[in-house]
Amino acid sequence: MPKKSSRRAGAARGAKRGAKRGAKRGAKRGAKSSAKSSAKSSAKSSAKRGGAKVAEKSRLKRVRGAAKSLAKRSRASSGSVSERGENPARGKSAARARVAKLEKVLAYDIGGTKVHTAIIDSRGRVLDEVRVAVDFSRGRSEVFRQWIDAGKRLLEGHPEVRRVGVASAGPLDPAKGLLLDPTNFASAAGETWGVVPISKLLSSGLGGRPVVLENDAAAAILAEHWCGAAKGADDCMVITLGTGVGTGMIVGGRLIRAGRGLHTEGGHVIIRAGDESAVCGCGNLGCVEAFLSGRNFEKRARRALLGGRVDRGAGSGRGLGSDEGAGGSGGAGAGSGAGSADARRSIGRVEFAPGHAEAGFSGAELAARARSGEAAVVALFEEYAELLAVAIHNFVVLYAPQVVVLAGSFANAADLYLDRARERLEELLIRRRHGVDFMPRLVVSPLQNRAGVLGGAVVAFRNE
Predict the structure, then answer these.
(1) Is the pLDDT of residue 46 over 60?
(2) Cis (ω within 30 of 0) for the bond into 171?
(3) Which domains are present in the chain?
(4) Are 268 and 289 in contact (CB under 8 A)?
(5) Could you give the CA distance from residue 296 to residue 243 in angstroms, rounded to a whole number?
(6) Alpha carbon of 384 to those of 264, 296, 414: distances in Å?
C-alpha cells in the first residue's frame, strides 16, 4: 500500500478512537452532572416537604392552643350556669391534678346550730376534726370567735396547712366571700346579720390564710361527686336536711349556679303558698325549708303532739283550709268542735294549736318514737314523705338528675320516710317515664355527716 494511503487510514482510525474516547468522557461527565443536579433537586424538594411539615405542625399547635384558650374563657364567663374548672371527680382533669399538689387543707361546715371543722388530705381522708355547738344568741362577734377558735385548735397540730375552704349556709356570694343576711343565723331576739365579709374575717383570725367560700349544699354535691354517692354521675343533686334545707346540682359534670354568680336556693321554693303553719326563716310561708328542715319538723311536731291532732287521712293531699284537715267547711278550723280558726291552724293532715311551751322533742327522739310504732308520730313522718316527694318532683322536672342524694342530720331518719317518698315520686312522675326515664335514684349520703367539710375541702383544693 502506498505510504499516503496508509497515513490516511491511520488518521481515520485515530479520529475514530478519539471520538469514542470523547463520547465516553462526555457521557461520564453528563452522568455526573445529571446525578449532581438530581441530588440537588431532591434535597431541595425534601427540604421543602420537611419545612411544610414543620409549618403544619406549628399551625396545628397554634390552633389547638387558641381552641383551649377559647374554651377556658367560655367556661370562666359562664358563671350564671356553671363553676369554673373541671370537677375533681374526673380522674385526668386539671382540677384533679391541682388536688394532687396540695396535701392538706382546713375545711369548715357552718350551719345554724354548729360548726364542724376538719383537716382533710387530697385523697378525701379526714385526719382530724372538731364539732362545736354554736350559740347565735350571743351575737355575731361571739359566733365568729367560736368559729375561729375551732379552726385554730386544728391548725395547732397541722401548722403546715395553708388554705381554708368554708361550706356555709346561705344566702351567700361565693366569689366575693360574703354572707348575704343568712336565714338561720339570727339571734334569739331576732336580730339578723346583714351582709358579712366572712372570708375576710376568718382569714384575719386564721393567720392570714386565704379562705374560699361556698354554699354548703353546693359543697356537699361536689363532695358526693368526688367521693360519695354521686361519684361518676354527671347529672346529680343533693338535698341537705339540717337546720335548713339546701340544694346543690351538677349537670353535665358541672356545678350549676344561679344568675350573678350566686347559688340556687331550692330550700325557698314555695310548695304550699300562704300556709301560716309553715313560717320560713326567709319570711315567706310554705317554703320547702319550712316543712322539711330538721328544725322546722321538730317545731311542727311539738305543736301537733302537744296541742293538736294528727289527721290519719294521709292520702288526701289536701292543704291549708281543706275541709278534711280543718274539721269543717269554709276554711282552716272553721265550724267544728275542734276549735275556731283563731285557736287552730291546719296543714291538711296535722292540726297545730298555738301557745304551748315547746317540749324539747329532738329529731332523734321523734324518730325513736316513730320506730317504736307511736301512730301520731308515724303520721308526721308520712306527711314529711309526701312533701319531700313534691319538692323532689319540682327539682327533677327542672334538672333531670340521675341520682338525688339526701344529706344532713335529718337524713339519719330516712328509714321513716324515704320509701314512701320514693313511691309518691313515682306517681308524680308517671308521665315522665317514657323514652327518657326521669325517675332518679334516691339515696342517703354515705359520707356520715361529713359532706359539708369534704365539700369545703374540695373548694379549697380547686382554688389552689
Answers:
(1) no
(2) yes
(3) 94-228+452-462 (3.30.420.40), 236-310+350-446 (3.30.420.40)
(4) yes
(5) 8
(6) 23, 11, 10
pTM above 0.70, yes or no: no
Q: Are 238 and 250 in contact (CB under 8 A)?
A: no
**Beta 211-215 vs 164-168: how paired, if at all?**
parallel
- pLDDT tens for each residue of 135-153: 888 888 999 999 999 999 9
Q: Cell numbers 336580730 correspond to what residue?
A: 191
The pLDDT tens digits for 239-282 are 999 889 999 999 999 999 999 888 889 999 999 999 988 999 89
Secondary structure string (H, E, C) spanning 333-345 = CCCCCCCCCCCCE
Residue 370 above 90 pLDDT?
yes
Q: Do residues 220 and 238 lie in contact, with contact meaning Cβ atoms separated by under 8 Å?
A: yes
3-state secondary structure of 146: helix
Chain centroid to Cα 427, Å, comes to 28
DSSP at 400: -
pLDDT at 22 exceeding the cut of 90: no
- Mapped onto helix, strand or coil, the DSSP state of residue 308 is coil
**Rounded distance between C-alpha atoms, residue 372 and residue 177, angstroms:** 46
Of the candidates 55, 161, 170, the residue with the CA atom closest to the CA atom of residue 118: 161
Beta strand residue intervals within 47-177, DSSP E:
104-110, 114-121, 126-133, 164-168, 172-173
Angle at 35 between CA 30 and CA 41, to 5 degrees: 125
**Rounded to 5°, angle at Cα 23 from 22 and 24:** 90
Compute the distance between CA of residue 367 and CA of residue 417 in angstroms, rounded to an integer: 10
Provide the pLDDT confidence category of residue 237 given band limits of 50, 70 and 90: very high
* Residues 274-303: tens digit of each pLDDT: 998 899 989 999 999 999 999 999 999 998
Distance, C-alpha 351 to centroid of its chain: 37
Per-residue pLDDT, 254 = 94
HEC letters along 309-369: CECCCHHHCCCCCCHHHHCCCCCCCCCCCCCCCCCCEECCCEEECCCCCCCCCCHHHHHHH
The model's pLDDT over 80-111, given as tens digits with 9 standing for 90+, comes to: 223 333 343 443 444 444 444 558 999 999 98
